[in-house]
Structures are given as C-alpha cells and as structure tokens.
Design the sequence.
C-alpha cells in the first residue's frame, strides 16, 4: 500500500537522515537498513557514516532510484557554508570522492545518491572532486576514553577490608 502511494522510508538519528524510496525494494522481500557510525575525521564537518541496505541477506549498494541523505553539520567548524560538499569513501582509490549536487540549508547538507557506502561532509573550496585524509574511515567508533582508575582503587580498598576482617576473625579464634 505504501509502495503504491510512493511513500518513502525515513531513517534518522541525531546526525543524519536517509530517505529511501520504496521503489528500490523488491516486493515480498525482507530488508534491513544499517547505519554505522565511523570514527570522526578531524577535517570533516559532520560525523562519518556507512550506509547499507541488506535484502534477503545480500548487501545492496547500487540503486536505480536515488536516495536522499541529510547530514547535520557542526557550524562551529564551518568557515563558508557554500563550500560544504558531501563525499563518499572510494575503497579503490583510498580517497573521498565528491557526490555532486549537495545543498546547504538550515544547518544541514542534503544530497541525492544512487549508491551506499561511507559518507561525510567536507568544506572544500573550488571544484575539487577528491579529498585525501591521513587514514581510511575507521570502524572503531566508540565513546571517548573518559574513565578514571577510581573503580580500581575502590576494588583494592574492598579487598583490603575483606582481608583485614578475615585476619581479625582468624586471630580472635586462635586466642
């Protein structure tokens, strides 16, 4: 019913939104949409995400109908909003390649793409078609290492109390 009315599926989180037309999905087939955050890149103006659609266990990366991606941009990192462009990571060349047609509006960069891979937003002046970074997008995204060793000290203290209590009970029984 939704497919006949041409209603798209909208998948989003706090940083990115994907608008997927139902026309790319095969009737009666189950599908999964994967949105994986990658480790941030210093020069990128948005988080880095890898997009994948899995239909009946097979990853689909090319589509006959374009999918719309909307990226939230960290405006504190942006000098000139008109230079914001969306790039995807090309595994063959190990470079970020331009996805043409990006538009900036109200803190978001929107682009249509006929394929899925790893995407982010860079601020690039001129007609640059590629961006090189120091490393490939890493899957090791996680929370920042802000933990302290207080729990180790707490555990050591508890163990010392248990050992002390055990020795006290043992000495009282012996005397």
Sequence:
């Amino acid at each position: 019913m939704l497919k006949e009315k041409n209603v798209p599926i909208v998948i989003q989180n706090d940083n990115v939104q994907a608008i997927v037309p139902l026309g790319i999905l095969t009737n009666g087939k189950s599908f999964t949409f994967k949105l994986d955050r990658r480790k941030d890149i210093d020069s990128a103006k948005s988080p880095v995400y890898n997009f994948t659609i899995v239909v009946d266990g097979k990853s689909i990366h090319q589509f006959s109908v374009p999918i719309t991606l909307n990226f939230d941009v960290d405006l504190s990192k942006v000098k000139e909003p008109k230079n914001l462009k969306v790039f995807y990571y090309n595994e063959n060349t190990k470079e970020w390649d331009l996805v043409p047609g990006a538009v900036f509006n109200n803190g978001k960069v929107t682009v249509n793409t006929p394929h899925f891979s790893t995407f982010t937003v860079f601020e690039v002046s001129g007609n640059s078609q590629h961006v090189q970074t120091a490393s490939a997008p890493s899957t090791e995204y996680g929370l920042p290492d802000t933990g302290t060793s207080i729990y180790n000290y707490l555990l050591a203290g508890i163990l010392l109390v248990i050992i002390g209590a055990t020795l006290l009970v043992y000495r009282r029984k012996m005397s």
Observations:
- DSSP finds one helix and twelve strands in the chain.
- The chain has a mean pLDDT of 82.
- The chain has one domain: 9-139.
- The helical segments are 150-174.
